[in-house]
Amino acid sequence: MTSYWPTSSITEQFPIDLRLDAVLVGDTPVMRRLKQAISIIAPSDVPVLINGPTGAGKEVVANAMHLMSGRTGPMIPVNCGAIPADLLESELFGHEKGSFTGATAQRIGLIEQAEGGTLFLDEIGETPLHVQVKLLRALETQTIQRVGGGAPIPVNFRLLSATHRDLQQEVAQKRFREDLLFRIEVFSLCVPALCEHAEDIPQILRSMEQGSRGGSTLQLTPCALALLMAQEWPGNVRELRNFHDRAQILFRNRTITEEEARIALAPRLSFVGGAPAVAEPVVDAVPEGVTDLKAMLAGSGTLDLRTMLQRVEVKVIQSALELSEGRVTRAAEMLRLKRTTLISRMQKLGLESDGL
Fold first, then answer.
1. How buried is residue 209: exposed, middle or buried, by Cβ count under 10 Å (0-12/13-18/19+)?
2. Does the predicted model carry a pTM greater than 0.85?
3. Residue 279 contacts by C-beta under 8 Å, 6 or more apart in sequence?
4. What span, in angstroms and rounded, lies between the C-alpha atoms of 173 and 336?
5. Residue pair 185/1 in contact by the 8 Å Cβ criterion
6. What angle do CA 305, 242, 22 make, to 5 degrees?
7. Which is more confident, 104 or 266?
């Protein structure tokens, strides 16, 4: 089992398939490594396990894998967690007429529907153990047996699986079969959380605008963008989509300020005088050398988060430049930024370096 993301240097030897740029948005180092791994693995027929937090884009990665696989059949997505456990076997493998109460006709299962293409099992960790046994046999023999059926049916499909669970832990808890894990994880890809490639947020927002109805664009001030890039984003790209949609509704065809971005970040709005309420700005920044933030907040009651984050950013960039002996390219690599992005941030913050 091999994980090509995020540490392997093998991917750096391979070019990125240009088709991926239209499917997977982002050009940060972590996203480039993911695209390189997909470029290597996608043309094969081996099973791949896609890991990553909820909302990070695991199905998008699966679609990209199928697009580049060269397989002529369809991509069949299945959310294993959304199908009742007692029905999942019939949904995947199909059933014969009369095989159980309510089976009034023969049904072709989703595996057969993926003939010549790709079967994507999202949240495979939710699969019941008895279905795991049949899935393992299908992968090993390339045949299936419908519920209530007789002779095995040959199938030709490529399996992609996804989960946000730790399947090794599930194996230890006896909730997932170890032999099936070995079979589905010939390769493992990890989709990064949005906060791990926050520099891609402007590009992701532009891609969302292209797919939005009405053709309106979402314009944000630099401070508003900085606010978004400092968020934790527990819902990842899905949460960013929600922000985009709320901002489009609340502030259509205008440049969104930092205060307005704060409003659009919250799903619940409070209205004062018929307009969304904006919190009063705070004015005191964190004094130099203060490390006990709780004590500082208890003393002053306010904190200028923007100024504090800016000071932290300056110190981090300065530290990277010192460690890289002033070489911007090396500092950018240390900070997982594009060189042009780091130069832009340095210019905005008034930092200088003569190194390349």
1. middle
2. no
3. 259, 262
4. 36
5. yes
6. 105
7. 266
